[in-house]
Amino acid sequence: MKQLELLHEGKSKLIYATDSAERIVVRFKDDATAFYNIKRAKIQNKARMNCEISSMVLGYLNENGVKTHFVERLDDEAQLCKVVKHIPVEVIVRNVIAGSMAKRLGIEEGIVPENTIFDLCLMDERLGDPLINDHHAVALGVVTYEELAEIYAASARINSLLVELYAKVGVKLVDFKIEFGRSDDGALFLADELTPDTCRLWDVESGEPLDKDRFRRDMGRVREAYEEVAKRLHNALNK
Ligand code: TMP
Ligand code: ASP
């Protein structure tokens, strides 16, 4: 499979066409941004760590019957992925209260609710990917209620599998963000990375974050945290 022209440059990834209309190359970058580009830096080795982590996690989901766009890892920093038609919403799954939910509702970070929380955001950077609800999403014409039911069911299944995986490596999966797409035949696919950029991961023993909050909150040892996650997953999945 040949990597061809650049189709899209995002904040942390580059997307390339290939010689197959059904495949793209996703190439990770060392760049880190937070708060919509207000804070920027390069984190040495992040591209390689995120490629490795996301390849292991999406591979694990594929093996457990979740359809993801991940096909294979191509090199240190790139994956071959399936082309899907992107659905312009983000689903945030929360097992522990943290981040924007803690702030918005004045709840202390670290509180564990009895239910799993699903947030829906509209993907529109100019608006700062605003939090919306199901009715907004349907009114905007981006999804139907039936599609939302399928998306939430897939998100719940992904959450269970990830909670189980991370528990095995001494990590609490606090929350994460995912995006979906559809293949030509209408099947729903997880079409996103799953990395410490897009998940909150707390070390069970120390409670220390092993994710991008270390960058967002100037906590230091960002690269070391990503490397720790990669190492633990590597050992657990025998990769
Ligand atoms: P939040 O608490 O800031 O809403 O973030 C919830 C989760 O979503 C957290 O794991 C980080 C992830 N996330 C992204 O992947 N991209 C984003 O743009 C934002 C705001 C959050
Ligand atoms: N959407 C945020 C940014 O641009 C990323 C984040 O905080 O995870 O920079």
What does this structure look like?
The protein is α+β, with helices and mostly antiparallel strands and 239 residues long. Helix 1 packs parallel to helix 6. The model has no long low-confidence stretch (mean pLDDT 97). The radius of gyration is 17 Å and the shape is globular. A hairpin with a 4-residue loop joins strand 4 and strand 5 (39-42). The strands form four sheets. A five-stranded antiparallel beta sheet has the order 1-2-3-7-6, with helices on one face. Strands 11-10-9-12-15 form a five-stranded antiparallel beta sheet. Strands 8-13-14 form a three-stranded antiparallel beta sheet, covered by helices on one side. It has six helices and 15 strands. Thymidine-5'-phosphate binds next to helix 2, strand 12 and strand 15. Thymidine-5'-phosphate is lined by residues 92, 98-101, 129, 175-177, 198-200.
User: Considering DSSP H and I runs of 4 or more, what fraction of the residues is helical?
Assistant: 25-40%
Distance between the termini: 23 Å
In the sheet with the most strands, the strands line up as: 1-2-3-7-6
* Range of strand content: 25-35%
Q: Could you give a short account of the major beta sheet?
A: 5 strands, antiparallel
The tally of helices reads: 6
Write a brief structural summary:
The protein has 239 residues and is of the alpha+beta class. The protein is 31% helix and 31% strand.
